[in-house]
Each structure stands twice: as C-alpha cells, then as structure tokens.
C-alpha cells in the first residue's frame, strides 16, 4: 500500500480538534476510539508511540481489506 503525502504530517492537534475534524469528515469517534485515546493518556504514550501503534492498526486493517476479510 502506497502512503499518501499528508499536508498535516507533523502537525499536533488537541483531542477536541481531532474529534471535531473526525465529525466534519462524517467519521465520529466510536467508543473503541475513545477507549484507545484514554489508554494513550492513562499510560503516558508519546506522540511517536501513538503514531507507531496506529500505523500497525491501520496496516492490519488494510491487509485484511486487501484479502477480503471483514
């Protein structure tokens, strides 16, 4: 899967800004999303750790999608 250029790469958004952006895109946070971000906060994850975790999650989703898994 080819990564796209992201004009927001390196930008830091507050959690409220992220929630608002997700809502504007028609993709509001789910309870699972809320739990994941709460875990990040509770465990004191750095932005780099969060990005690495999300990269792994999205890679697994993309891989499953390309195989036709649901």
Could you characterize what this model shows?
By secondary structure, the chain is an all-alpha fold. It has a domain at 30-70. Helix content is 63%, strand content 0%. The chain has helices spanning 15-24, 31-43, 47-67. The radius of gyration is 13 Å and the shape is globular. 0% of the residues are buried. The model has no long low-confidence stretch (mean pLDDT 84).
| Helical fraction | 55-70%
Average pLDDT number: 84
How many strands in all? Answer: 0
Q: What overall geometry do the principal axes of the alpha carbons give? A: globular
Radius of gyration: 13 Å
Assess the beta-strand content as a share of residues.
under 5%
String of helices and strands: HHH
Largest sheet: none
Distance between the termini: 18 Å
Tell me the structural class: mainly alpha
Low-confidence stretches: none
Count of helical stretches: 3
List the SSEs and their pairings.
Blueprint: H1 15-24, H2 31-43, H3 47-67
Short key terms for the protein model shown above:
70 residues; mainly alpha; 3 helices; 0% strand; globular
Briefly characterize the structure.
The chain has 70 residues and is mainly alpha-helical. It has a domain at 30-70.
């Amino acid at each position: 899967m080819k990564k796209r250029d992201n004009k927001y790469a390196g930008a830091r958004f507050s959690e409220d800004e992220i929630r608002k952006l997700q809502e504007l895109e028609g993709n509001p946070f789910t309870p699972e999303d809320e739990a994941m971000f709460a875990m990040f906060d509770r465990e004191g994850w750095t932005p780099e750790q969060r990005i690495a975790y999300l990269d792994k999650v999205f890679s697994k989703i993309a891989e499953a999608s390309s195989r036709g898994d649901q």
